[in-house]
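hiii so um. not sure if this is the right channel but i have a protein structure encoded as tokens and i wanna go backwards to a sequence. like what aa goes where. can anyone help
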């Protein structure tokens, strides 16, 4: 069996003694809401891909090879044409400092949405140049895509991205992110309720974990959430538990992940509105973007302290 010292995974983490995050204003929980902007960067033969998209769509089914799937394309278009705007209006109404995970190709195809994001002042993090699985993409191609994603966000939003989230990374992604410079964190992990430092190429790198469970992707056809009510109850219960943990002296972080083509639908958007209202009824909540979390962690939890856990 591989020894723990040489095993490339960390199954221990903070263990029984997680650090107290010391969130601003002694908040019981830090809540990070993320809106994924992907529509127009998914698999499509129009983009030079061999097949249509089949992930996170209400249409379901196997990818169509060598041809367009107009139904799938239309479900993605709903996200950029309607759902994105519904969610953005809710975030603005509740004054939420959210983070946009932006796919470069998708953002470039919708200048009006890019301009609205720029005006909103919301953080924009890289979500890859394409919304595809980078598992077997050659390293040089992935590096070029990473650089293109940064260039598009910087040009269209007017400020460089400080965070990264692929969603479907390759074994090279985190190293390429660190080598590119300029990033404070990446979120390609789902293994904790607190940020943590991890060594990459001999240097400390900050990870702010993302989530697949507090995620509207579970509402897609074939998912385990059937209605907006399912989404609301699960997210509310997660928030309430973490809030109680924080009140008892063990604050944590909560990420809520959204997609315009999913939660932005009329039969689901009320669930998000109810969730934001529920969160806003609580004091001692730090509703923030991911760069704010990264800067706070860097200021209060240096890599040396992390290595002593």
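sure thing!! here u go:
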């Amino acid at each position: 069996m591989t020894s723990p010292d040489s095993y490339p995974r960390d199954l221990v983490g903070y263990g029984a003694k997680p650090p107290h995050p010391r969130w601003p204003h002694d908040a019981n929980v830090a809540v990070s809401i993320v809106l994924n902007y992907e529509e127009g960067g998914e698999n499509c033969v129009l983009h030079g891909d061999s097949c249509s998209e089949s992930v996170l769509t209400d249409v379901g089914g196997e990818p169509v090879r060598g041809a367009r799937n107009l139904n799938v394309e239309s479900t993605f278009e709903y996200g950029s044409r309607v759902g994105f705007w519904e969610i953005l209006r809710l975030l603005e109404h509740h004054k939420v400092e959210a983070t946009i995970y932006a796919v470069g190709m998708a953002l470039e195809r919708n200048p009006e949405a890019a301009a609205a994001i720029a005006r909103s002042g919301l953080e924009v993090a890289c979500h890859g140049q394409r919304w595809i699985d980078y598992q077997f993409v050659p390293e040089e191609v992935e590096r070029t895509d990473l650089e293109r994603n940064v260039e598009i966000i910087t040009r269209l939003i007017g400020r460089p991205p400080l965070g990264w989230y692929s969603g479907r990374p390759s074994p090279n992604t985190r190293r390429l992110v660190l080598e590119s410079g300029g990033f404070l964190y990446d979120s390609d992990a789902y293994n904790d309720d607190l940020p943590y430092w991890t060594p990459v190429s001999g240097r400390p790198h900050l990870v702010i974990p993302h989530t697949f469970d507090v995620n509207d992707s579970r509402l897609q056809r074939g998912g385990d959430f059937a209605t907006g009510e399912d989404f609301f109850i699960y997210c509310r219960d997660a928030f309430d538990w973490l809030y109680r943990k924080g009140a008892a002296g063990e604050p944590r972080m909560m990420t809520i992940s959204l997609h315009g083509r999913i939660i932005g639908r009329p039969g689901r958007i009320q669930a998000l509105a109810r969730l934001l209202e529920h969160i806003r009824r609580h004091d001692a909540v730090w509703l923030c973007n991911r760069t704010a979390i990264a800067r706070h962690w860097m200021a209060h939890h240096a890599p040396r302290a992390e290595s002593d856990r």
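oh and The beta strands are 29-37, 99-102, 123-126, 163-164, 185-186, 196-200, 203-207, 252-259, 285-288.
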